[in-house]
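ESCALATION

Customer reports they have been waiting on this structure for their group meeting. Please prioritize. Original submission:
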Amino acid sequence: MTPIKVETSFLGQTLSFETGKIARQAHGAVMLQHGDCVILATAVSPDERREGLDFFPLTVDYRERFTAVGKFPGGYIKRESRPTEKEILTMRCVDRPMRPLFPKGYLNEVQIMIQVLSVDSNEDPDVLAMCSASVAVCLAGVPFAGPMGAVRVAKINGEFKINPTNSERENASLEFVIAGTRDKVVMIEGEADQAPEADVHEAICIGHKALQPQIDLQEELIKKAEVVTREYTPVLPSDKIKSICAELKSKIAETLNVPGKHDRNSTLREIKDNLMTMLKENEELADEDPATFPMAYDDLIGECMREKILKDKKRVDGRGLDDIRPISCEVGLLPRTHGSALFTRGETQALAVTTLGTGDDEQRIETLSGDGKKRFMLHYTFPPYSVGEARMLRGPGRREIGHGNLAERSLKGLVPKDYKYTIRITSDITESNGSSSMASICGGCLSMMDAGIPIETPVAGISVGLIEDGDNKVLLTDIVGDEDHHGDMDFKVGGTEKGITGVQVDLKIHGLEPEFIAEILEKSRQARMKILGIMKETLAAPRDEISKYAPAIVTTKVPVAKIGTIIGPSGKNIRKIQEETNCHISIDDDGTVQIAADSLEAAEAGRAMVDGMIAEAELGKIYEGPVVRLMNFGAFVKILPEIDGMVHISQISEERIEKIEDALNIGDMVKVRVMEIDDKGRVNLTMRNLDKPFNPDDVPKRRPSSGRDNRHSGDRHRSHR
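Update from on-call: job pushed to the front of the queue and completed.
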């Protein structure tokens, strides 16, 4: 195949797609380049589906190798292995907008693999990776309602910017990833600093407009490559199967009126089992694909549920379109945790626990943009018992990581930037019937307030669904699991009374018109206000004090040059402070010292020792300290933890002293005044006239010494350098 390359100007740099040069045995492959960012994306889809497969097996793999920025991976193993959280979140951002663009009934496996080959460390390649995946799938000739483009929109200093750099994103008040086709938005993912709905809608519209050049360039490449969409036979129930299933429509419709999830599902399961047995034993269906039997039953349930909503304006659990399920909140239910909350909405329940930690509890992160730290974490868990199932337990899946990240982004912006604690929230979904990530936002917020974290205002989350039939669009507030499964949209929004803090949109249709999204945002705002009112009835504001079981933390700032003094040789000094005060000390590279202990008194004692260790002697100040050494010409007194000063024998008393031992002994506690700090940093002290004001001009001028300074050089310096 002859290489084909197309390019255009995009955001001030050349954007190019090239195919036919690398990965030529893949069904579709593209080298995307934009500035220094180079991405290889491939797509492979066999001509036949795997036998017995009754779902669409789309898999996405995205990898950021450190070779892309000329680095080695950290740690002992110098090879990338399992995907990082950042890579998993990007895989989800590729999968979620593309999945609904494949036609129903196409069950051939599709595998998309994306590798970042080169990138500027100040840029995030994720949105370009989304674009590259669309190109690869289109080149593979797979039936796909694309092309699809993707951009990041941020609002920085009041101005919207497309694909800002990482450093620019630090100052963004709003940041969203927008994916879309020519006419519609197919995915939204992002966070904001309590942004008004109007700002979020404007960002979405700007993003959808900005991605159009990507679609133009993809269409140009597809035309030049003469891509032919492959033919396939949709795996769908035949009319014969549908007609048999339709005989159960009235019975299923009646069962959908049962309000309880488990009672309803129990009856539906019995109907399904009988139907499957009947279909399998029907000789007239011997030539039919058995994989289509459960499809037909599932389609029938969806049809009944959607008709009930569109015609009767009633939902599967009997609620009206805008009704929110009953909500109950409880806080402080786990006595030894730092903060806890139980948030229940209908048959969805989240148990959230907040834990406060020190700087050493921060998560260290290694990415292409450099090493970093994470001080706010939310970990979401979806155990099988939450839906009455028993299955193999493994590590967190992509869905759990994605839901946790959404709740984390929705909450973290409410924590003061100078808050000294590291925060970890765990959200265990103890019951689930839809919108569990939104329950995690509500429960997580309540547990933060129970922990005494001084957030500005409470945060709540709500999910809005959609049933679409041609031009007839019906929005559903607070969707349950069946409405998520059989509906067309899951539009999740977290926010406060002021505005939005997090958004995640998943679709089963080919997209949303940008104008329609404004209506959805307003619907979510109205519901959010109701939920926030209920939450405030339980806990209106953060508690005044943190839990007595949380560590007490104090901080101090030291000159960077003094960090070594605090640590000491082989950590001697810092260990001494920690052992004597029973505290834990962590030091940042900028000189911020964090002292944590079980009590505030212990933490303050640790801070006093740190401050004393780096303190400098002040001219004229009176100190009290022990005599640590005697010489025939005077005594050395420890005035600060790391500073000794010398009292000459003539400065001990107004009377003449023949022998130093006649006036002082080692260990005596004496009061002294700093009367001189010489040009070598050595401290001279006096015990005379302490009750009188200090005048530097009254300090006697010493005659040049023939050797005293050399003999005792360093005795009045810090005991540790």
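Sent to customer with the following note: DSSP finds 17 helices and 29 strands in the chain.
Escalation resolved.
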